[in-house]
Amino acid sequence: MRAMQTVGIIGTGEIGWRMGKLLLAAGHRVIGYDIRPEALKRPKESGFFLVENIAELCRRADFVLSCVTDGDTLRAVVTGASGVAANLAAGKPYIDTTSAEPWITINEVAPLLELNGIPFLDAPVSGGIPAAEKGRLNFMVGGDLALLDRCRPVLCQLGPIITHVGPVGSGHTIKAINMLALAASMLSTAELIAIGVDAGLSIDDLVRRLESSEGASFSTRVHFPRFIIPRNYASGFSFDLMLKDLSIGIGLADRLGVPLFMERTTYEIYQAAATDLAGKDNTRIVERILSKARGRHQIDGQSDLISRIEVLAAACNTLIGAETICLGVAAGLSAMTVIKVISESSGDSKALSHGISAYLKNGGTAPTLTQVLASATPTIAQALDALIPTPLVSQMAEIHAAGIRRFGDNADSRMVLGLVAEWTKQGEALTTMWESAGGIW
Fold this sequence. Notes:
Strand content: 5-15%
Largest sheet: 6 strands, parallel
CATH superfamily of the largest domain: N-(1-d-carboxylethyl)-l-norvaline Dehydrogenase, domain 2
Helix content: 55-70%
Number of helices: 21
Order of helices and strands: EHEHEHEHHEHEEHEHEHHHHHHHHHHHHH
Number of domains: 2
Strand order of the largest sheet: 3-2-1-4-5-6
Radius of gyration: 22 Å
Structural class: alpha/beta
């Protein structure tokens, strides 16, 4: 693919507009289209050439990107007399960066594009507005690897992490799984921080301690210090979009017959908050959890509480990581592909990228299941006394108790991966992957 391209961008909202600005800065010509007139103001000011319909954009562009709201919108963009499939010339690449339903991609969008000779990649992004603004987007790509290599010079202008995940649909699949992991980690961390704040601990100190411990995650690195502690709640990613993404993840699990625990509970918490938080920033959901902490139950032994919170944050993230891996495996991805992609994305946690990864390589250490439960019992009791709801932390404790019954008192707490694999019926697939890799992932 030659260096200078005329790139068409369908969907010039917060991410699409910023991608276009980066491409203009890199010397490409950019054509923009959006169904919403208000979304075209900034692109026009930035120097986009604007068109009135997708058909015209396809005729003028060498390369087309779309960044729309969901799979239904993606379907509408591709199909019909004025859609991409009918108007983009055979051989010209089309890349969708939407967080879309993978079953729509696999069963409807990709076959129609293939029928018309249009090379297609599903390449949703992670990192949000801050990453889009700085050219630090993370692409999770499904489709032909040779096509990705052909398109890489353009994508490199938008972000440094471009990971080939698998066949068409794999990008949209792993993005949905990533969002489940992100939301579950953020909410379980928020529950633990609320307990600490209610006991008189500083939220700043708690987040710093978690970020330097095995309880670290994308949320302790980004969401809490940038958006939640300053109370600006300005992540740029709406509650509505997060709920949509979680719906896709749960829909994927339902289609595959995979039961989820922490991640399904997270989805239900978001559903319950939909009326109050519609139209607001996604991080506002954490404000609701932290509002339960009033500093009314200050206790002695705060250092011990911090240590317990660190253990429990890691345990929650380990369990979330186990669900994430098993859902990915059920969808046809390898365990290490899931770990690699999620660890480079917003669903990252140290428990996944270091703890579970080391465990699968027969390395690293972690508390036993019994030690985790010993930390959970007084912490949950303290939350009950303070009237702080802890549905995720309590569920984590119950699952660790089940792990003790299954594996014994002294079992490594990361063995919850084996428990979740049994419950989700992915144990055989994980074992096969392990054996085919010679016991080394």
